[in-house]
Amino acid sequence: MDTQGKTITCQAAIAWGKNSISIEEVQVEPPKTGEVRIKLISSGICGTDDHVLKGELPMKFPLVPGHEGAGIVESIGNGVSSVKPGDKVLTLIIPQCGECSFCLHPKGNFCDKQDVLPCSGLMLDGTSRFSCKGEKIYHSFRVSTFTEYTVVPEIAVAKIDAASPMDKVCLISCGVPTGYGAAVRSAKVTPGSTCVVYGLGGVGSAIVMGCKASGASRIIGVDINEEKFPRARALGVTDCLNPRALQKPVQEVVMEMTGIGVDFAFEAIGHIETMVSAWNSCNNSYGVCVIIGVASPDSKLCLEAIKIITGKTLKGVCLGDYKTRDCIPQIVSDYLQNKINIDPLVTHQLPFKQLHKALELYHAGKTIRCVLLF
Ligand code: APR
Ligand code: ZN
Ligand code: ZN
């Protein structure tokens, strides 16, 4: 059936408010100028989605959650030239408009056209493409993916290799570049260095992969869920710490283990307490602390000001510092050429209809990444 130019009725998850999600029949309007409608094939469940569903980010409800998506272009709006119907694509939580000050700067990746800070929940023209029983439903970060069909700005779409295995590559939409890039591009982990990674979920695991690929000699993994340790060790973690099983603060243990503190510390949880622990795990001279976890917007970091003069670096990173449309298709190609292996991160795959079971597995700490299949 030709759906081009028509509203599509399909199944989508709707978060009605905090901790209230259900699968509903929704209407998805055709893409407007500069937009692309995508038939989703897979979507990962990322830690950021969990923050959204718990109401920890200032998002407008009701919304269609999800952002880590892989799919096939169903139709395109006027003016779209980089993709055509049938192309395999990934959704990008950070777009690349190519025109704003950040896109034009060689180092910038936090495109002005993103909808993360702040979240409008609307497309670039200020309207929504989703409705349910006549009610307007908001988008999440302009890339909602817990839905059979979505509409996304062209600048938030990356065309990928036609040979991509669509049941897994959704991880390269967010979790893999977020973690891997934090290590190789933002921190620039050096051979023989010591690292600590707070949080061994999907993003933390990709950080570990990046540290390992950069030749780190010691990678300390920190998580309160010891079920994460065997998989983390398989990826390259050399020492595992459960802060709840320690007699003293975890950063003190990291200090004792390394003598002076690590060269590179990463936070991939989203709690201010673990951000401070990561900062205090770094050595005082040339230590680099990279924050990847998304904290709630009203929380504040409290650091000892005197420590800042010692030479340590504190930085944050979003989507691995990649210029997304330029770089993310290359990560997919690297995966296809066995230069990077994302397979160990995909621990579960479930049909979209079993979203609640997938969320239960996530909350029980059983998954690294659970992929929803449409
Ligand atoms: N101390 C240590 N580990 C913790 C703590 C804590 N206080 N609280 C949670 N964790 C662990 C969890 O057990 C889990 O293994 O942090 C990990 C988080 O992993 P995921 O839930 O899989 O989330 P992920 O997708 O990796 O995202 C992590 O990065 O991009 C951001 O918004 C994202 O803030 C989130 C973070
Ligand atoms: Zn831009
Ligand atoms: Zn994500």
TrEMBL record:
GO cellular component, one term: cytosol
Molecular function via GO: all-trans-retinol dehydrogenase (NAD+) activity; zinc ion binding
InterPro entries assigned to the protein according to its UniProt record, in alphabetical order: ADH-like_C, ADH-like_N, ADH_Zn_CS, ER, GroES-like_sf, NAD(P)-bd_dom_sf
Alphabetical keyword list: Cytoplasm, Metal-binding, NAD, Oxidoreductase, Zinc
Record SUPFAM superfamilies: GroES-like (SSF50129), NAD(P)-binding Rossmann-fold domains (SSF51735)
Residues covered by the Enoyl reductase (ER) domain: 17-372
Pfam families: ADH_N, ADH_zinc_N
Keyword Cytoplasm in record: yes
Cofactor(s) the protein requires to work: Zn(2+)
Subunit: Dimer.
Listed name of the protein: Alcohol dehydrogenase 1-like
Species per Swiss-Prot/TrEMBL record: Dipodomys ordii (Ord's kangaroo rat)
